[in-house]
């Protein structure tokens, strides 16, 4: 079961990211340029926050 859920989660992440680039290419380009201007500490905090929230969602979904 673990691998099925893991592969489904990777597929969902790729789908969401791919859809964002397909539907809003200019917006994604602007977002990437804006991210380049941020200091590393803010990027690290945002990444850790997103990873923690994602882990919480997985924990809640799988019980």
Question: What is shown here, in short?
Answer:
InterPro entries: DUF2065. With 63 residues, this protein is mainly alpha-helical. The protein is built from 3 helices and no strands.
Describe this structure in words.
This protein has 63 residues and is mainly alpha-helical. The chain has 3 helices and no strands. It starts with a helix and ends with a helix. Helix 1 (2-23) crosses helix 2. Helix content is 90%, strand content 0%.
User: What is the averaged pLDDT score?
Assistant: 92
Instruction: Please state roughly what percent of the residues sit in beta strands, choosing from under 5%, 5-15%, 15-25%, 25-35%, 35-45% or over 45%.
Output: under 5%
* Portion of residues within helices: over 70%
Q: Care to count the β-strands?
A: 0
